[in-house]
Amino acid sequence: MSDTRPQGQPDEAMVDLLVKQVTEGLSPAEQRALDVMDSEIASAYLRDLERAAAAVTLAGSSGAEALPADLAGRVAQQAAEHFAAVSNVADLSEARTAATERARVQPSTAPGQSPEPFATRGRATRYGGYGWLAAAACLVLAIFGWERSPPPLPPVAVVEPAPVIVPPPAQPAPPTAAEERAALLAKTDSLKIPLGATKDPAAAGVTGDVVWDPVTQRGFLHFAGLAANDPATHQYQIWIFDAGRDKRYPVDGGVFDVPANAGEVIIPIRAALMVRKPAAFAVTLEKPGGVVVSGREHVIVLGATT
Amino acid sequence: MSTSVLQRIASGDSAAVRECIDQFGPLVWSIARRLSRTPADAEDATQEIFLDIWRSAGRFDAAQGSDKIFIAMIARRRLIDRLRKTSAEPPMDPVEVLETVAWADPGTACETALEAEQATRALAELRPEQRQVLELGLLHGLSQTEIAARLSMPLGTVKSFMRRGLIKVREFMNVDAERVSARI
Fold this sequence. Notes:
The structure holds two protein chains of two kinds.
Chain A: H1 12-23, H2 28-35, H3 39-59, H4 69-105, H5 118-148, H6 177-186, E1 191-197, E2 207-213, E3 218-224, E4 235-242, E5 251-256, E6 264-269, E7 278-286, E8 299-304
Antiparallel strand pairs in A: 1-2, 1-8, 2-3, 3-6, 4-5, 4-7, 7-8
Helix pairs in contact in A: 1-3, 4-5
Chain B: H1 5-10, H2 16-34, H3 39-56, H4 67-85, H5 114-124, H6 128-139, H7 144-151, H8 155-183
Helix pairs in contact in B: 2-3, 2-4, 3-4, 5-8, 6-8, 7-8
């Protein structure tokens, strides 16, 4: 597949990840996928998308309501503390620099003669602003406290009410993985694919299948006989081969563990990228946390759509 | 051109902190409320955002955009980071509040920001369902999966609408930036 996009432009997979980063943030798997892409292009495009998202946010935020007075007071107090801390750090840094420079200058200074003060004057001026800012922030705090504190409430008689225990509203239990898988299996447009064990020793006796919904991009693996893994040394990792992508780089579907004596297990698939034409699903055994590109030393199961 | 309040904070101007809280507090609070799960979360987020603003004021460059867009970017970054760290509950704004979103009118750049006007013009060129996807994602903090479920729309369509919408806004902003630089 030839790449016809202009030089310096992100490809579709990168744009998908950057849009998600800007709108809702990335999962660890998505972040891993982005980390292996061209960081220079990604950071430039990310900044553009962040500006665009912020512009839409501004466009939809006209007529914003005022900051609550007590919150404004806390923000001002925090500002005072922040600039005081910055000022202290600057002062400390200044003192250390001055001490160092005094130590350096003293051998050549005649007895009774003050060291040259001009060496540190520039920095003192630069950091001096923070001292003023800290003081000003304290003043802001005082003003906010003065102007924005609500008037004291008139004294009222305190009546202790009898405690009334209100039962929390019953929340419907979230569906289990087995229920969600059953729902996907019932959908007519979902893909149901048997998974075949490979000749890898870890695959002996494994049977399984995968169900995948191309509309919601959700799916589940279902296994019996998959050996327990030690998460400290290895984890299972899911891969989805997309017919629209380079088959050397399947989409990461997340990592999972199988506890001892698990019997049958159902694993949700968390695709790091949009899968347009799922062609095959595979599970490999990888180092803890998974890998960006699998060496495919231990392919455990494999299932193709055709 | 007058100096931005952020530049004044960075240079140690004593009155700028108060002005910054007064001037941008409503904007930060409005974004925080929409993209937080509870009112208490929104308050914590607002404090964190202002701390980020104090720390980042020195990096503000007026040539790159308005102070409002700089602050909105800082706010969004912090809020998305918080959303990812918390549970999978949706933000507190129910979708029924959608009608209350007040889009800036094109031509009111003095009251809002040039970038908001550019975004409004770009949004006007999108189909209503595309605009709705951007609104749910960017103003109400819904994930793409949540948007797909709420609008009964395939996830791929949601991703595509979000991508094209943001790219459209980006194009409007870049074209305007080129016009400005051509005039200079």
